[in-house]
Amino acid sequence: MPAKRRAPKKLTPLFMSAVMVTGSVSPFAFAAPGGTNHVKKVQVHVLDETAAAAVGAPKVKGGVTEVEVVGTSTPAYTARVENGRVIVDVTDADVDASVSAITAKVGVVGGVMTQSAESGGKPLTRVSIALTKESTYRVRVDGTTLRIWLSPTDSVPTNSKGTAVQDVSFAHEANADKVVVKMSGSATYSSSAASASKSRIELSGATLPEDLERVLDVAAFKGLVTAVSTYRKDGKIILEADRGVDVTAEVKVDQKTDGSSVLVWTFTRASSDSKLDPKNSKVTGIGADGGVAKKTKTISKEASLFVEETNDDSASSFLSSVPMQAGGKYTGRRIDLDFKDADVHNILRLLADVGKVNIVTADDVSGSVTIKMKNVPWDQALDVVLQAKNLGMVRTGNLIRVAKADALEKEREMAIAKKKQELELAPIETRLIPVSYADAAALATKAAELKSPRGSITIDERTNVLIVRDVAGNLDQIEALVHSLDTQTPEVLIEARIVEATSRYLRDVGIQWGGDVTMSSATGNPTGLAFPSRVGMVGGASDQLTPTAGLSPTTNLIPNPNFAVNLPATVGTGAGGGIGFSLGSINNIVNLNVRLTAAETNGMLRIISSPRILTLDNREATISQGTMIPFSQISAQGVQTTFQEAKLALVVKPHVTADGSIAMHVRINRDEPDFNQTSARGDPTILKRQAETDLLVPDGSTVVIGGIFTRNTGRSLDQVPFFGSIPIIGILFQRRRASDTRSELVIFLTPRIVNRAEALGK
């Protein structure tokens, strides 16, 4: 634990770097639960070439410095270089209270601070190693011991055994991209940002096969990383990743028990889900093809008098009681402080040394401070000290000026008064701003909020031009606003396709048969009885409308066919067929008439309607085509004729979203008269088909917004009682009908942005 000092007058640089600066994130230590690694000992020593060979360390002339972290289980760790220090985080591990800071200089190590912290709800032990000279490091897991080997950069390893890179692969996940590097051993690495859109890792002490010296093009994944390059340069292996400007990178090394290691380079998005544009723009969506659709732009920004922090040396900021980090989010390195009645100047000097900033105090800053803090960011400690002494600060880059809060407040008021005076004395300019696509009157209302009290805006309706008078700064803001809003309104072409398909099958099979038998003296076959001396029998299932075509070769209509079974199918011109048989005897004693009829219909009907219309964004459009059908209505005033419309209509109101898709409300009607089904007066019924919905469709995509499928099947049997139920013979007493009708209605919709490039700025 850090040593406690009271009223220190002088602190050596070694003590400050090794003891005061820590990298933990919580001031609490955790007791080791079951399964948690428990760090029991941390020690530093120098290994000669023989000792280095025994543990597998690189053999370096003059020896290698080893930091040994001894735990109770196999450690998992991450390592990095930060501000000239080697930071090793042992995850899921706490540290024993007996482990203290090492302040003695051993080899290239100037001091070691070990402290418990917390990460993601799990304990974490951070080992911070201060260096006395520029060095390289290697980390190796040896059972339950973590060995950190450090050697000066100007030393040359004497062993020939090296680490080989075995594979470099890329993995795309939902919220992160990963580059995985598999190595046969351990290698020293350092990570940095090569540019605003590139990250770099340098591997030392490793070799790269020729087949892995390549560029992985991963742009097709449309993730955070577009390409990963691996190559050799100046004896080092360089890994470069092309990424977005708001993407952060994190490196973790997993040391295997067999001596191999896996380096995982993870890329995550720093902000929520928006990409920063190089021209001070922020992307609000991704287009259908993965590109930028609409952007939000900062077109007006007031000159701020109270910027909290800036890296621009020409700008200044005024802070009194305002914290250095907005919202209390402090990012400085964490430190421990324990002082009683310490001079405030010494405290400020200490914080300046830790924070790598320059602090200048005013002449009226004085007093002493009693403070005890553990594991707090240095910038938060600075804010607390200033607030306790009623002090404020002005920060410009890495230069901080500390003075009384009252004095800084007076400076602030003077700056405000000066700004107001400059605004009141600034010359007035007149600028003509042409408006091409929008209404100048509508834009004048929006631009009026940006003008100063001395400004004015008028409109020339003939030329659609804004005439603006104001100071130069406000004119620039108004012009930027007008140019941003004066863009082409997206035009959307909506094409609907209504497809109707109907299939119909009908089969009808019937029979007609009958005749007559006569026994009389006229026909020569009397009965021989007194009564009845004459007998006649005829079929009685016929009338004047009974179809008899085909029963006689000389006439198509027989007045009295005498059918006993009259169950014909519906046949006639253009439908079905029939055949008739007429059998008789001499003198027409016995006559038999038979007529077989059958009809079958099989057809398909397909109707395609394709209305389309072009409209502006957020404007409702309608297109229709139809028929006005007259209907007669009888009332007290007499007969009146009204008209009912049967039409094909498309009504749509589209809205182009920020990502280039189209949200719209759609209503489609297809009505048609049906003259097969009429009223008592002969008026046709109207078949209605309608779909109304709200949907979101990518530009140029076709979607099915609805469909209806119906099927009607039927079977009927007409027969003579009893006789029609007799097997086989019953066919002579039956009429069979079967029908199957199917219909399907499907509605397709395809929206397209006609002027996408001009309206969305792509």
Description of the molecule:
The strands form 11 sheets. Strands 33, 34, 35, 36, 37, 38, 43 and 44 form an 8-stranded antiparallel β-sheet that branches. Strands 16-12-13-21-20 form a 5-stranded mixed β-sheet, with no helix packed on it. Helix 3 runs antiparallel to helix 4. The protein has 8 helices and 44 strands. It has 762 residues and is mainly beta.
Helical residue percent band: 10-25%
User: Total strand count, please?
Assistant: 44
Multimeric state = single chain
Form type:
elongated
Q: How much beta, percentage-wise?
A: over 45%
Q: Low-confidence stretches at least 5 residues in length (pLDDT < 50)?
A: 1-34, 156-160, 271-292, 304-328
Individual helix count: 8
User: Mind summarizing the main beta sheet?
Assistant: 8 strands, antiparallel
Whole-Å distance between the termini?
59 Å
What number is the mean pLDDT? 80
- Roughly how many Å is the radius of gyration? 48 Å
Helix/strand-derived category reads mainly beta
